[in-house]
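Hey, quick one: can you model this chain's 3D structure?
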Amino acid sequence: MLIVAAALAIAFAACGASEADRAGAVAARYMSALGDRDAELACQQLTTTARRDIARYVRRALPELGTTSCAGVIRGALDLLDDAAVSALREVKVSSVSISGETATAQLEGRSDSVSLIRDDGTWKIARLQFL
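Sure thing. Here's the predicted structure for all 132 residues.
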């Protein structure tokens, strides 16, 4: 019974999250996935267009990777970084999120970079990474 009560409390807490919290969580999950070298999870946070754009960008910048998938190019790019640099990505926090209808912008703490998100069928996804 205690487990059921705890599960319900967690579910209700999630329901109370604002749209800004939900959009910010996607940006934070993306950065954390990069820091954990989890390319698949990172790509899951991106729209189809953003996955294609990041793959195209990295393929142009690093043709030696020889892969065309989002996860493949992210994995290859992360492999070029040392462990400290990758771990630092996990520590990047979202400092603020502004919502405008179906779009949001998440500002990353201590950086001039921002993340553009779009709500598609009620789910926030990263539409564009400003630092690409």
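One thing worth noting: Confidence is low (pLDDT under 50) at residues 1-14.
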